[in-house]
Every structure is written in structure tokens, then in C-alpha cells.
Design a protein that fits this description.
Blueprint: E1 20-23, H1 39-48, E2 52-57, H2 63-73, E3 82-85, H3 86-95, E4 101-105, E5 120-121, E6 129-132, H4 147-155, E7 160-162, E8 168-171, E9 174-177, H5 179-188, E10 193-195, H6 201-215, E11 224-228, H7 231-241, E12 244-248, H8 266-276, E13 282-284
Parallel strand pairs: 1-2, 1-11, 2-3, 4-5, 4-6, 6-7, 7-10, 11-12, 12-13
Antiparallel strand pairs: 8-9
């Protein structure tokens, strides 16, 4: 029988052990429509105690485009110190292929990703590189809609740059597909896809550098806590860099992780985490102080 993970009732129970938070955004802070109750106070209280909060997101847009979205959803800027996104990391990959013809696969809202870069855009059948930020219409489409396009890219050996490793997110109770699902579908048929963001090292390097700049000195990995709702990105990333992990079990894994209409099923949660091979330092349904 799998060991029961440590269930906590409030972040205050473990906050003193850490100086730095790498906090996921979608699924932890908001659901695409509104900020979850209690999140603002939890992050603000940690900062009032001397901690630093860096929001680390697989958003396929630069950090400067994410902050206004958080403003609209109701997260005050006093709740965090900085934002680092997979879009920030992706821009360096795009800059390296600036001399090639690029096809943008994703919604227009992600076009800020290219701002300030000298990019030569092209249609899909003429492109040398495809940059995937998501589905064109994630409200109606699935990765299956892109089969013909991906096979055409494969026939010409067109490499893909994926700006968001997430497979899915929960948007107001509805699961929608992300760029990572397209990249995985392309890899599954033999395509080449460079995937930016969590759980890979470059985004964490950027986050640690950003935190050090804000604090005036580096923070040890052991005094850093990653907060997230995804086993594949947040928990795997925390394990890879050797920092603590707080699993928010009420996110995209809610049903698998033992969430019903009442209390958490501790046995189901333990079995789920054991099956995934991850051991977070603590678990709570939602981030509250």
C-alpha cells in the first residue's frame, strides 16, 4: 500500500522552511476566469514574511504579456515579485532561426511572443520552422484535427518549437488542449520538436537568476519550493532541480487524485502519486494561507 502523502491545511504550515517560491499560474492561481479564493493572501503573506515569489508559467507569451492578464483576473502585483514564462525561453529559440521562414501554429493572442524579433512568417506549406503556441481554436479543436498538417510537416522534415509543454489545462471546469499535446502528437509520428518551459532546466535557470536579482543574492535549491498542479511539469521539474514541491491536488489531476464532492480520498491520492512515481513534500487541494 502506498504511503500517505503529507496533507496540509494551509501553506503557513510549511512556509518558514522556504525563502523562494516558484509558483505555477494556471491551475494554482486561477482557472482562466478568476483567481482562486485564498491565493492572493497566501502569496502576499509569504512575501510579507521576507519570501520571494516568482510565478513560473508555461504560458507561450513573454512575461510582460502575462502580467496584464493577471491584473484582469484579479491578482494584485503585490502578491508576486516577478514572472518567468516558457515564452521567455522560447524567444531565444526563435531568435536562433530568425533567418528561416516561420509558421505560427496557435491563436493570435500569442503573437506578442514575436514582438521585437525580426521574423519572416510564411504559410504552412512554405515554412522552414513551425512555432507552436497552442491550437488555433482550443474551444472546439483537439490534436486530432492537426493530423494532416503534422504529416505534411513530417514529409518535409520541418522542425517544431513548442512554446508551451502543457498537454491540457482546466479552463473554468473544461479541459482544453495546449501546445504540448500538438508537440507530442508530432513526436509520435517521428517529427522533431524542441519543447520549452517546465519541466526543463532553462526556465528554472531563468527563474533562479530573476530571484537572485530581486533578492540581491542567490537562493539555495533546498530553500526553494515549486508549487503546481501538474505531475508532468511542476512536480517533475521540482524533482529535476532538487527543490521542494507542493502539489495542488485540486487542479488538472483532481479526479485522479481522489477529489470527490467532499474530502480528499487519502488512499486514492497516495495511489495516484505512487503510480506517477512522484513524492511531493506536501499536498493541499488549493493554495491558501
Amino acid at each position: 500500500m502506498a504511503a500517505s502523502p503529507r496533507l496540509i491545511h494551509g501553506f503557513r504550515e510549511i512556509a518558514p522552511a522556504y525563502d523562494l517560491l516558484f509558483c505555477d499560474i494556471w491551475g494554482v492561481i486561477h482557472n482562466g476566469h478568476a483567481v482562486f479564493p485564498g491565493v492572493t493572501e497566501a502569496l502576499s503573506a509569504f512575501r510579507r514574511g521576507g519570501g520571494t515569489v516568482v510565478l513560473v508559467s508555461n504560458a507561450p507569451r513573454p512575461n510582460g504579456a502575462v502580467a496584464p492578464q493577471l491584473d484582469r483576473l484579479g491578482l494584485p502585483r503585490e502578491a508576486y515579485d516577478a514572472i518567468v514564462t516558457s515564452g521567455d525561453v522560447t524567444r531565444s529559440h526563435i531568435a536562433a532561426v530568425a533567418d528561416k521562414k516561420v509558421f505560427h501554429l496557435g491563436p493570435e493572442r500569442d503573437l506578442p511572443l514575436y514582438q521585437g524579433l525580426d521574423i519572416h512568417f510564411a504559410q504552412a506549406d512554405e515554412a522552414d520552422v513551425v512555432v507552436c503556441t497552442g491550437l488555433f481554436d482550443d474551444t472546439t479543436e483537439t490534436p486530432d484535427n492537426y493530423g494532416p498538417m503534422l504529416r505534411a510537416f513530417l514529409a518535409r522534415q520541418v522542425p517544431m518549437i513548442c512554446a508551451n509543454p502543457d498537454l491540457v489545462v482546466d479552463r473554468g471546469g473544461i479541459i482544453i488542449y495546449c501546445a504540448g499535446a500538438i508537440a507530442e502528437a508530432y513526436r509520435a509520428i517521428g517529427g522533431e520538436a524542441a519543447i520549452c518551459g517546465k519541466p526543463f532546466q532553462p526556465i528554472y535557470d531563468a527563474a533562479f537568476e530573476t530571484a537572485a536579482a530581486r533578492r540581491g543574492s542567490p537562493v539555495a535549491h533546498g530553500r526553494t519550493l515549486a508549487i503546481g498542479d501538474s505531475v508532468r511539469t511542476d512536480l517533475a521539474g521540482a524533482a529535476a532541480i532538487g527543490c521542494g514541491a507542493l502539489f495542488i491536488s485540486g487542479g488538472i489531476h483532481a479526479l485522479e487524485a481522489g477529489h470527490g464532492e467532499g474530502e480528499i480520498d487519502a488512499e486514492a491520492l497516495a495511489a495516484f502519486l505512487a503510480d506517477k512515481g512522484v513524492v511531493p513534500d506536501a499536498v493541499m487541494p488549493r493554495l491558501i494561507w
